[in-house]
Amino acid sequence: MSHDARFGLGRSVCLPAPLRLDGGSLLSPIDIAYETYGTLDADGGNAVLVCHALTGDQHVASDHPTTGKPGWWTRMVGAGKPIDPAHHFIICANVLGSCMGSSGPASINPATHKPWAMSFPVITIRDMVRAQAMLLDYLGVARLRAVVGGSMGGMQALSWAATFPDRVRAAIVIAATARHTAQNIAFHEVGRQAVMADPNWQGGDYYAASTPPSAGLAVARMAAHITYLSEAGLTEKFGRRLQARPDSPNGAKTFGFDADFQVESYLRHQGISFTDRFDANSYLYITRAMDYFDLAEEHGGRLANAFCGVQARFCLVSFDTDWLYPTAESRSIVHALNASGAAASFVELSSPYGHDAFLLDSPELNRVVDGFLRSVA
Amino acid sequence: MTDLRPDLAIIAANIAKRSRALDVGCGDGALMAALRDTAGVDARGLEIDARNVAAAVARGLSVVQGDADRDLADYPDASFDYAILSQTLQTTTRPDVVLDHLLRIGRQAFVSFPNFGHWRVRTSLLWGGRMPVTRLLPERWYDTPNIHHVTIDDFRAFVNQRGITVEGAWFLSGDQQTTSPAANFLAEHAVFLLRR
User: Are the Cβ atoms of B61 and A334 closer than 8 angstroms?
Assistant: First the structure.
């Protein structure tokens, strides 16, 4: 298996079979960029699918090829970590609609030989999951020991269990929700409008020009980034401290509109550096997919119906300072799992860091995931 | 199972094999693990303390963080063979409501609690005039989680009044079982098996 070209880092595959999207159209072919770690057991029983969040990628535990930064979840995935290539065959794929090698609005439409841009079909979380299932077919993985994800990755994990109940033995859903609330949609709409208000956006057809709508995308990222943090976290990190300047090491109010405050400087940096690695149209498509996500709606309006007959065991984790997907959202999922008789574990962990806590150092989270995964083995 | 707390050992010894049980206030899951490993019970837990939940999940148990006073309403009727409430009744805000939920969720319910009628408690109040601090009730009046002290006779009267059937009762003094008639005076804690 070590010589099998399907396995390893930096893989990609072009799947010819058309995918019927929730929006009604057929998409083909489908490119999926992915990575695998570890070795698939002879019986195929050790496969773990890791699902990434909105702006994540397939480099879950390997250095990013362009930024050089370590993988986005090396605290959870890697040697000696709860998800360990020594025991698990780990798969992480770039989601449909994204811009890290999987099909999305920046990909070339084979019919026109030009980027899809806004002619790319609107996709859903379930479409992303169905595309991942096609990838698993290609990889020869019939059934997952676990599907794991935080934030939008957690939405995918829920959707996996509901869409392919026979292919999932366990789902780990961290800092996630079963539906986007009005507030979640509202923040995303601010981001999308910021992108579309940038004159460089040009109705999405900016790929030929050398000027993508970076200013709009940076503002979108700034607004979203605030929702990933907590007030206490921001206060601890920045307070009202002023940004150091060449003429004033302790900073000063300029009585102008420079980034006087450290928090302004931080957000501007977050926004600008994001535009180096992310496509503005992908941001529109993926936020749309998240907004459309309502697992209950897909099952007659009752969330428990989504889990009827589901054999998978569930482990849900929320963080007490996460106001993007607060604990109440996880509780309502647990409520539905209880009503459907599914085996569910749930814990709210304490962290000052808000929604982003799932990506940060959390020994308690690792302990829960490790113990849960061992019990599925 | 020998290292189980005596009241938990009684529950473990009297539960039907391969049944479904909900342990309300399951702590770190010691009873659930014993029920799973020795009787093949499909055990689920509810626990208020996050560290306990993490410990229980880490031993492969299905435990949900929640509060017996608030979250039992989310469980469907008759979804378990047994609902178990061990050493938790006296800490709830509304023991009567919690008990109603137990008998709604489980076809039967195991309830264990420390007996406030035990002679050491009585002598402490009678001779010392002070709220008792004993082996099983180690906290002082101001920091105790036990906000609804109950005696075995109180509990008998309560279930009798509500038309709840007592299908089994066990009384413990130290680690030894004691007889029913003198239990209210001699037993440190009690285990009841109830049915609506």
Answer: no
Amino acid identity of residue A349, one-letter, is L
Partner-chain contact A344 B62, CB within 8 Å: yes
Nearest CA in chain A to B52: A347
pLDDT mean over A282-299: 97
- Lowest average pLDDT, out of A8-17, A104-113, A191-200, A241-250, goes to A241-250
What CATH number has the domain spanning A11-179+294-376?
3.40.50.1820
CATH number, domain with residue B66: 3.40.50.150
Please enumerate in sequence order all residues whose Cβ is within 8 A of that of A324, keeping only pairs 6 or more positions apart, or say none.
A151, A175, A184, A227, A228, A354, A355
Question: Of residues A84, A279, A322, A356, which has the active-site annotation?
Answer: A322
- Assess whether A59 carries a catalytic annotation: no
> Across the strands, what pairs with A83?
A77
Chain A: nearest CA to B91, how far in angstroms?
21
What digits encode the pLDDT tens for the residues A343-369? 999 999 999 999 999 999 999 999 999
A146-169: pLDDT as tens digits: 999 999 999 999 999 999 999 999
Which ipTM score applies to this complex?
A: 0.87
Annotated catalytic residue A180: no
Domain residue spans of chain A:
11-179+294-376, 184-286
- The helix/strand/coil state of A313 is strand
Strands B106-114 and A26-27: unpaired
For residue B11, what are the domain limits? Answer: 6-195
Answer whether CATH 1.10.1740.110 is correct for domain A184-286.
yes
Name the domain count of chain B. 1
The question of whether A22 is a catalytic residue gets the answer: no
